[in-house]
Amino acid sequence: MIEKLREIIKRRDDLADRMAAPDATADTKAYGNLAKEHSELVEVADKAEIYSQLHDQLQEDEALLKGNDADLKQIAQEELPGLREQLAALENELKILLVPRDPNDNKNTILEVRSGAGGEEAALFAGDLLRMYSRYAERKGWETEIMSLSEAEAGGIKEVAMAVRGRGVYGELKYESGVHRVQRVPATESSGRIHTSAASVAVLPEVAAVEVNLQESDLRIDTYRASGAGGQHVNKTESAIRITHLPSGIVVTCQDEKSQHKNKARALKVLAARLYAVQIERQEKARAKQRRSMISTGDRSAKIRTYNYPQGRVTDHRINLTLHKLADITDGNLGELIEALRIQDRMDRLADV
User: Fold this and answer.
1) Could you tell me what percent of the chain has a pLDDT over 90?
2) Nearest to residue 55, comparing CAs of 99, 86, 96, 97?
3) How far is CA 20 from CA 186, 272, 291, in A?
4) What is the pTM of this model?
5) Looking at domain 116-352, which of 3.40.640.10, 3.40.50.980, 1.20.1250.20, 3.30.70.1660 is its CATH number?
6) Integer Cα distance of 322 and 315 in angstroms
7) Is 93 buried (19+), middle (13-18) or exposed (0-12) by CB count in 10 A?
């Protein structure tokens, strides 16, 4: 293991030297690739460096035990238990960090939110979830774009698809796929009774049509007049698009743009992402690697999280984590939750290796 770790340290340092060269930024694409690889190695290389130093110190102390100097042997005997304990802890951390990453982690994402059981309150909750993810993306410096939106008459949303673009987007947001449950007193509830409602979230890696073998012959494309709030400017023309993927039966609609061509392009992106997610799910089932925690499987039937407003808490049921930070989390401070899920995911994948 030590040799592999030293190779990682050497690679990190080599990348840093190349990035610091006077002409490094002349080729912006090449520099970007260097910076990307360097950032992916930094965390594991830094821990590897500490591990390497402790490993060398351990070997020196073990050599001193074989010597004739009584004082040095005493010092070595006192240091060895602590060194071994530190090395064991670091080794466990490094094993998790060295687990191969999901190849989709650096992809952009299409995030879909749909209201579920709970009527008007579910639609309002779906709107709250959209705001939460939009705020998180803003904090991360990611770009967001609403691909399609269906609003509920009483407020909130029935369904929305939002593109999220930036560094490592899918690698962070993929843990949000599943059913989210809210427990709170609706504004329309005069008796103060707590209602339970739900909304589903699907996080899909954004892919090109070629990655899913999207063929025109498999598509039925229908046009119709857009409707709903804000759609008056397109009601007179058939600019809205409905695409049906005949082999799978998946249907995607988009009516938010004035241009039929733009609506079609957006709908195709969403369709490609959904089909890609289906492929991933089939592959994982074939390999029998569905996670116990449902992390990263994209299984939308899993109730993954509860937002309890009266108690001000959020509970993630996959890792039994409860945080009494509901206001912060719904305002987009998801970092603590996502990091805990990421660690558990790596531990689960390490067990499968």
Assistant:
1) 41
2) 86
3) 57, 39, 42
4) 0.66
5) 3.30.70.1660
6) 4
7) middle
